[in-house]
Design a protein that fits this description.
By secondary structure, the chain is α+β, with helices and mostly antiparallel strands. It folds into 3 domains: about 220 residues, no CATH class; about 90 residues, no CATH class; about 70 residues, no CATH class. The protein has 17 helices and 13 strands.
């Protein structure tokens, strides 16, 4: 009882730091979480088809050497799944304002290097850092006490994954090249060892981070949980249910379409029939809307009918989508249509691009524009995909913004 009472007081003290300017709560949470993390992730990922297995801690604050020099950046934890011969780069974020895209790009690069050449370079890089550092003793400690017991397995690993532990408010900021995002409340609540009672108290307090965001900390309270998340629609529907709803409710609803009436009229049949549509009630809807991108239900029906009629001669060309059993995506879209999809649906969709983030980021904008088509799918359908070849909608927009 005395132990859990102390943990309760300690965690309350740490959690107060979320409301103190400049306080770095990650520095307080990290060492505590480190004591439990191997067992917690083992339990959390028990049923995960890609990551399940006994997770082993290699080293907290593991140094990753930057390319071309003897400087490093640190991943919060380097961990190991021996049964899968897989390394895990695990990063902790306790605030929705601390997500760093450049940091994640480094982790993604290291993951690809492990897949291409195995994990031995990680050990060699620590040796290089040791020889160049005024704190060589610390690197020697890592090599002797943290790496040595697992060196053979690290060398054998030819798979690696990037995992983030974040508050719920930061989840939507995660990019598609992150393999697993776990919110604090989704961490396993019960473990068998070490100190299961203490972990239960810690988990209770860490779960409160899921209720915190820059908006809530600054008392910008929303009128609903949907508005709180920046959502400005009631639901999303595929083509046929959206048409049915418009026929039933008419101008009592509005349908979201980036580019408004003009772009709706100029979109091809395949694109219209293979995408999602946001909708909301016309009066008293959710959040803020840009009027030109929202079309009353009756008008949406009229324009779509006119569009499909004008493209009637192309009906054979744009036949019903191939059965999902034979394809691995929901539909295809040209560049402008793909961008519109990403703007409307963000991380609810993913865009296929062989080579993933690096290939997409390094392709000239002219080639991206002239590409014949882009495969897209719903983010919920990632089970049988090669994740490294699919980018989340917001990631696509971020890369394009830098190019334009």
């Amino acid at each position: 009882m005395m132990q859990t009472d102390f943990i309760e007081i300690l965690m309350k003290h740490i959690m107060e730091a979320t409301m103190i300017p400049k306080a770095q709560i990650e520095r307080a949470v990290g060492p505590i979480l480190s004591m439990f993390l191997a067992q917690v992730l083992t339990e959390t990922l028990r049923d995960d088809p890609d990551l399940s297995g006994v997770i082993v801690m290699i080293c907290p604050e593991f140094p990753l050497k930057k390319g071309g020099n003897r400087q490093s950046t640190n991943i919060d934890w380097l961990m190991l799944n021996p049964s899968r011969e897989m390394l895990l780069f695990v990063e902790l974020k306790t605030s929705d304002t601390s997500v760093n895209a450049n940091q994640n790009a480094i982790y993604h690069q290291k993951k690809e290097e492990v897949r291409n050449q195995g994990g031995s370079f990680l050990v060699h890089d620590v040796e290089i850092l040791r020889d160049a550092s005024n704190e060589s003793g610390k690197y020697s400690y890592i090599l002797e006490h943290r790496i040595a017991p697992h060196r053979k397995m690290i060398t054998r690993c030819r798979d690696a994954r990037v995992l983030y532990i974040v508050p719920a408010s930061a989840k939507r900021k995660m990019t598609s090249d992150i393999d697993k995002v776990i919110t604090f409340s989704n961490l396993a609540e019960q473990i068998s060892t070490p100190y299961p009672d203490a972990w239960k108290v810690i988990h209770k307090h860490l779960s409160k981070l899921d209720e915190s965001s820059q908006r809530s900390r600054n008392h910008r309270y929303a009128t609903s949980s949907m508005e709180f998340d920046g959502i400005n629609y009631q639901d999303k529907l595929t083509f046929k249910p959206m048409i049915d709803l418009c026929e039933k409710r008419g101008n009592a609803i509005v349908v979201g379409f980036m580019g408004g009436r003009t772009d709706l009229l100029n979109s091809n049949r395949a694109y219209l029939e293979n995408r999602l549509y946001k909708w909301d009630v016309a009066r008293g809807g959710v959040g803020k809307k840009e009027g030109r991108n929202w079309i009353p239900g009756d008008e949406f029906l009229r324009i779509v009918t006119m569009n499909l009629k004008s493209h009637g001669s192309q009906k054979a060309r744009y036949a019903a989508p191939i059965s999902p059993r034979r394809t691995n995506w929901a539909g295809t879209a040209k560049f402008d249509e793909m961008v519109a999809l990403c703007k409307e649906h963000g991380d609810d969709i993913v865009i296929g691009f062989t080579g993933g983030w690096n290939a997409f980021a390094n392709t000239p904008i002219e080639k991206l524009r002239s590409r014949s088509h882009y495969k897209w799918d719903y983010n919920r359908n990632m089970g049988k995909k090669k994740r490294s070849d699919w980018l989340r909608g917001k990631t696509v927009l971020q890369v394009l913004e830098r190019k334009m």
